[in-house]
Write a structure and sequence with these properties.
Blueprint: H1 4-10, E1 17-22, H2 28-35, E2 39-46, H3 49-61, E3 68-72, E4 87-93, H4 95-104, E5 114-119, H5 123-132, E6 135-145, E7 148-157, H6 166-171, H7 173-177, H8 181-204, H9 209-226
Parallel strand pairs: 1-2, 1-4, 2-3, 4-5
Antiparallel strand pairs: 5-7, 6-7
Helix pairs in contact: 4-5, 8-9
Bound molecules: S-adenosylmethionine.
GO molecular function, one term: tRNA (adenine(22)-N1)-methyltransferase activity
InterPro entries: SAM-dependent_MTases_sf, TrmK
Protein name: SAM-dependent methyltransferase
């Protein structure tokens, strides 16, 4: 069975969809979704040979080689037009890498209506990408598992994505509206980290004042949200 993290990603894959799971490693997510009859098929993409072979092996072992194709490719280049992919999942990476993958071959998302993204860090950058590339956030989850905190962002194609404030982009509009225990834990930790960085840069006296001011503003915003 899936980790709580991947189960949360799976919760947002539409019934009957064709999925590309980019950075699939063992292909646990698409195999699980096929077993449960949620997806009809798709692609499991990997850029590194070892994980690609893990995916191939798992798909064959579970008897899904006809429905699910493992591809050794960088990011969205795993997606071909004939795959008829309508949903893309990218999980277990940093927000910067997820954003880079989505940006560098954006045209491969032509038929894609939904993105389910699980950044380990850097969710703000992912929200910024979605807002500026025609995807409307539909749902967000934050959860704690094995001492780590994970965010899951769900977005659908839209001609007019909502414009979010810096605060909404940082904390997540849905998470901010209904903060749970994992949200509070994450942002208490971030506040502490920011305080420590501020102490260091102030002691160093070589950091530009704008950079210090930006950190102070960020800390003030976190403290305000936690109140
Ligand atoms: N998605 C799985 C999960 O959430 O459990 C595996 C996450 S694993 C930490 C990240 C995987 O992404 C690695 O197997 C890595 O090789 C792959 N990866 C990193 N950059 C990639 C890229 N540009 N294209 C495809 N896969 C990539």
């Amino acid at each position: 069975h899936l980790s709580q993290r991947l189960a949360t990603v799976a919760d947002y894959i539409p019934q009957g969809s064709r999925l590309a799971d980019i950075g699939t490693d063992h292909a646990y997510l698409p195999v699980n979704l096929l077993k449960r009859g949620i997806i009809t098929g798709g692609v499991a993409g990997e850029v590194v040979r070892g994980p690609f072979e893990n995916a191939q092996r798992e798909i064959a072992r579970e008897g899904f080689s006809d429905q699910l194709t493992a591809r050794l490719a960088n990011g969205l280049r795993a997606i071909e037009p004939t795959d008829q992919i309508d949903t893309v999942a990218i999980a277990g990476m940093g927000g910067a890498l997820i954003t880079q993958i989505l940006t560098q071959d954006f045209d491969r998302l032509a038929g894609v209506r939904r993105l389910v993204l699980q950044p380990n860090v850097g969710a703000m950058q992912v929200r910024q990408f979605l807002m500026t590339h025609g995807f409307q956030l539909q749902a967000e989850q934050i959860l704690s598992e094995d001492g780590h905190i994970y965010e899951v962002l769900v977005a659908d194609r839209s001609d007019h994505p909502q414009t979010y404030t810096e605060e909404q982009l940082r904390f997540g509009p849905y998470l901010l509206a209904a903060p749970n225990a994992a949200f509070v834990t994450k942002w208490r930790h971030e506040a502490q980290r920011t305080r420590e960085v501020l102490q260091q840069v102030q002691a160093a006296k070589t950091v530009p004042t704008e950079k210090v001011a930006a950190l102070q503003a960020e800390l003030a915003q976190i403290e305000e949200v936690l109140e």
